[in-house]
Amino acid sequence: MLTPLATLRTALELRLDAAARTWLHTALSDAGEADQRELPRWERHFAAAGRRCATAEGPAHHLPAADAARVLLLHAAGVDADTATRLYREGTADERRAVLHALPHLDLGDAGLPLVADALRTNDTRLVAAAVGPYAAERLDAHAWRQAVLKCLFTQVPLSAVAELPARAAGDAELARMLRDFARERTAAGRPVPEDLDRALALAESPSEES
Amino acid sequence: MRIFDPHIHMTSRTTDDYRAMHAAGVRALVEPSFWLGQPRTSPESFYDYFDALLGWEPFRASQFGIAHHCTLALNPKEANDPRCAPVLDALPRYLLKDGVVAVGEIGYDSMTPEEDEALARQLELAAEFELPALVHTPHRDKAAGLARTVDVVRESRLAPERVVLDHLNETTVDAAAESGCWLGFSIYPDTKMDPDRMVRILRRHGTERVLVNSAADWGHSDPLKTRHTAEAMLADGFAEEDVERVLWHNPVAFYGQSGRLAPELAADAPAYGASHAGNSVLRGGE
How many structural domains compose chain B? Predict the structure, then answer.
């Protein structure tokens, strides 16, 4: 489910120490300003979020503090598709992950899909996990979405990372076939079948919600 | 034993090396950007490489329980190729990044006017972005090269304690020490410096401001040379604290000046271990 940005911000502020909180307020305020410079001030904050939020360790189910700060910054700056794409392409793995997490909060239409596709081509499991969020659930076509689910199983990204898995998998006979084939391949090789494959298979073999 | 390799080119190394390094005690490293053996022909080739040092390579290292940082720069050799010079204009946006803990490797290869220009400009960038600098000293005409390097550092805005002069040996260590810069030594299997010679230098100079690295790359080199040097120090009667100072605390202090060093892996980093035995690096590029 998509965490509302207000909730994300509250949870982040609670984890930051005083200096980091002050940085966040300045950064968000800069992001709200029109800034025509070649390198707007808020983009410097976007790059520096990791070291500015370094002290904030949080519960495992939360986004890393720097990711959350970057998502808030992207939203506060109201980035358009060109800017989101540039920040992803010029970004470190951490910055790219933040752009992916921000996609459902930005008004980009389908313009973020090439970024999702790029992340799904990588073998960086943190990027793969960030790519299969609510934005992908809403917009990936059936083939790309099935490949994404399979990629998660291949790279040991837990299927809990896949947004809207029950709704999209339900009654998907082609996904069920792919999962059964994958399980057969693993079994033939004497290798373990990923634990959460069965859950996805049960969903895919169940009747779809519409039928 | 906890080891920080302050100069190693992991892009050129295999996962077997990562595994062996972790087993030998390496928990953190810095990968300086340099040339790839095969000359590059365009700035874009650098950008893909810089992106890898800020993306894929830290991920790869984290899979083996090793924290990865990098230093970025236009290296001395390729500073001489006008096709590559535009990299200098793109460096500012890269020097903002979290994983970048210094500007480097910069310095001299053949001591050309182009290298003069690139070195001076990049020392200025280090000052502007509040980063230390990793300065490669030339392998040919070494003593003269070191003297010229020290002159350029002195003329820059960068304080000597924010500069490491690397690849030092018996003929350059005294002049380097006098400059107030940090002293870097690259320990190779049988060429520029070896563990026993390193121990003799440590006996003479002490452990202060000394960084020991393997500089392992695509050439004849060994990523465990840091560990071998630690063992040679212990065999010669150095205390464990001395070893830990040279091989952990000194690099943490030097690169820590960037304000961006996180030598311990974050808790959420995917760790190497039984539960990840089939992951995307350990299993290959499926």
Answer: 1
